[in-house]
UniProtKB/TrEMBL annotation, chains A, B:
Quaternary structure (record): Homodimer.
Signal peptide: none
Function: Catalyzes the phosphorylation of D-fructose 6-phosphate, the first committing step of glycolysis. Uses inorganic phosphate (PPi) as phosphoryl donor instead of ATP like common ATP-dependent phosphofructokinases (ATP-PFKs), which renders the reaction reversible, and can thus function both in glycolysis and gluconeogenesis. Consistently, PPi-PFK can replace the enzymes of both the forward (ATP-PFK) and reverse (fructose-bisphosphatase (FBPase)) reactions.
Keyword Cytoplasm carried by entry: yes
Positions with a binding annotation for diphosphate: 13
Keyword field contains Acetylation: no
Phosphofructokinase domain span: 5-322
Family: Belongs to the phosphofructokinase type A (PFKA) family. PPi-dependent PFK group II subfamily. Clade 'B2' sub-subfamily.
Active site residues according to the UniProt entry: 138
Annotated site residue numbers, Important for catalytic activity and substrate specificity: 109
Name the record gives this protein: Pyrophosphate--fructose 6-phosphate 1-phosphotransferase
Length: 404, 404
């Protein structure tokens, strides 16, 4: 006899739309007569271990809708990466609470957790349906056209660079913006969508999919600066040398800053600062400014793609439908079916779990410092409606009176 | 006989609405029959020296409206701070081009430039009307209730902290966000408007109007972290010790980083990084993240206050009206007349030029690390319509089965 209990949790870094998926699961599950309880685990898998559950069946649909439109993980999240023993513990708690369906909203690591828990339940002969619901601003899940959370973060990055370009045009110099994404450059590449006029920035984009060579970087910046009198650069936090060593730590050594020797990639401004200092020192350009977009790019409230919102909602709803009608375990994936339309499918957990997608070669220009039109075509519809636009004066010059 | 020529220029740091003021001047001036030409100087006063003018009379009103809605200075800006000789040069160029009205959109330094040029023209007996149009995200112009550009930047800061608070609640730890404002703390204080529920961050706000004491800061963070298990902090880039020395350089010494010895306040992440390292080292808290809002806070496209937009437009229009109907030199100022309504007045240039307003004591709480309700009442209407709102789950806890 069925307990009718399901559990949903959120893992990894928050996004602008991860609560849409949560609301999608909760509201859709509540429509099924067989479902008696919709539990939410607080702080991801850690909340499962700690039996820290809340009953979403007792939440109003009105408030679930309001929470859906609120960024960041409403249930709380965790950075825990469960090993087999941790997963065993998860399985035991789920079983103790007679959970029959487990929905975990997260990225690669989360999908691997779902895969292990699913396998353990199967081996024990306990009928647990495990569904992974995709979420990551890095867009690095294989088998997905794109992942919920990425479009809104990409929109933030595109808008940020559109603004930074205007600022840089008004007060010319070099501007370096460092964007999240350790292995996949999708989010950094989104900077290109902030560009409108041919001489707009970002003029150069450095992705983790390509080897970063400092001398080449400096030569690139010098050439753009010579041409336009200014230069806007988008840099992924994950740029590395041919051996895979992060540039942040290499540069730190070069400028003899031991204390920066082993820097974390996110949550500090080291990489931007070090690149700016290299430009100042080696190119002799005075006005050089660096920003690290940091947490703003994933949690800024009020910058969201409507396409991302509705898709994040749908992957949650579809997860429940796949579980209820299909009775299979798996990972929900977004499939592009037109320009622009999508559908959803349930992939095998093995096909997604623990794997990392990086930017396809067709999306990166031959120079390695720009994106292709294929990427623009890929990303533009994801950014959604109402993207702000930038306009310029085109006024006629006035003849000089005093000087020639 | 009148030449009918006017000149407008933009100075200092760009804002989200400075082009509204530009459009206000151009469109209003074009309505006057006596005005034959509306010139714009490219790159502020430097463009005047270089006779680098464009003819805004030949720009379409459609495009002027689109440019008005675009952030950053469409004419270009400058960081030049003219001395008497520089002003003399400005005056000579204006005279050579038979400019009769000079409108300069900018902050304190710009108002001082307008004052000197106006004085020089008067002494030379040349009939030049000089009007300063207020603009600064720092909100530090005396005689103004607030300055155009500040409300939109404040909105960005409030939204950024609302999001950072949600992110920090999902993945608890300490978050430090560094905000622009060297002498005046208004923009940093705007972080308080991102707070909704009583335990929301920012929990602590450090302003340049109060002396920063590192030990007290660490004690404050420790206390908040002990209470909520997390802590969100807003810090002004201008925080300093009792002697007025910037904390960035003090901390750099303390952690023995000579290369950071003499850091610039904006355009790098040094202060946030140093504060985060102090928290990690002295309080033993693991998850500590710092963001420096940098240029995003003044040039992000798509985050703007509608109140700011319309007021920035009006100070431009009023500047022309004061010049045409009043025939006086002066600085346009915003006066608050109700909750919420404003009117505009023309102040003497002497009353504004080169002076700096800081946050009034009534806006800062007794603790020195929060704002008062008077400040909330002051700022809220400026942020405009459609501020995003954050919602929480209020679901009932589920009883534990396994553990007690």
């Amino acid at each position: 006899m069925s307990s009718g209990r399901i559990l949903v949790a959120q893992g990894g870094g928050p996004t602008a739309v991860i609560n849409q998926s949560l609301a999608g699961v909760a509201l859709e599950a509540r429509r099924f007569r067989d479902v008696t309880r919709v539990y939410g685990a607080r702080y991801g898998v850690r909340g499962i271990i700690n039996e820290d559950f809340v009953d979403l069946t007792q939440e109003t649909s009105q408030n679930l809708e309001l929470v859906a439109a609120t960024p960041s993980s409403a249930l709380g999240s965790t950075r825990d990466k469960p090993d087999a023993a941790y997963c065993q513990e998860i399985y035991h708690v789920l079983r103790a609470h007679q959970i029959e369906h487990f929905f975990y909203i997260g990225g690669n690591d989360s999908s691997d957790t779902v895969r292990i828990v699913s396998e353990q339940a199967r081996q024990a002969g306990y009928p647990l349906r495990c569904i992974h619901i995709p979420k990551t601003i890095d867009n690095d899940l294989v088998g997905n056209d794109h992942t919920p959370g990425f479009p809104s973060a990409a929109r933030f990055v595109a808008q940020a660079f559109a603004g930074a370009n205007l600022d840089n045009a008004a007060l010319p110099g070099v501007y370096v913006g460092v964007v999240m994404g350790r292995h996949a450059g999708f989010l950094t590449a989104a900077a290109a969508l902030g560009k409108k006029f041919p001489d707009d920035g970002p003029h150069l984009i450095y992705l983790p999919e390509r080897t970063f060579v400092l001398d080449q970087f400096l030569a690139d910046v010098k050439a753009v600066h010579a041409r336009y009198g200014r230069c806007v650069v988008a840099v992924s936090e994950g740029i590395h040398d041919a051996a895979g060593t992060p540039i942040a730590s290499l540069l730190a050594k070069e400028v003899e800053r031991d204390a920066h020797g082993n820097v974390q990639l996110s949550g500090n401004g080291a990489l931007a600062d070090l690149l700016c200092e290299a430009i100042k020192a080696k190119l002799g350009i005075k006005r050089v400014r660096g920003d690290t977009f940091g947490y703003l790019q994933r949690s800024f409230i009020g910058c969201v793609s409507d396409v991302d919102q509705r898709e994040a909602r749908e992957v949650g709803e579809k997860a429940v439908q796949f579980a209820m009608w299909g009775g299979r375990c798996g990972s929900v994936a977004i499939k592009r079916t037109g320009f622009y339309s999508v559908d959803y499918e349930l992939l095998e957990l093995d096909a997604v779990a623990g794997k990392t997608r990086v930017m396809e070669d067709e999306f990166i220009s031959a120079s390695g410092t720009d994106v292709t039109d294929a990427f623009r075509l890929y990303l533009r519809p994801l950014l959604g409606a109402g993207m702000p636009d930038a306009f310029r004066l085109r006024a006629a010059p006035v003849a000089k009176v005093l000087k020639r």
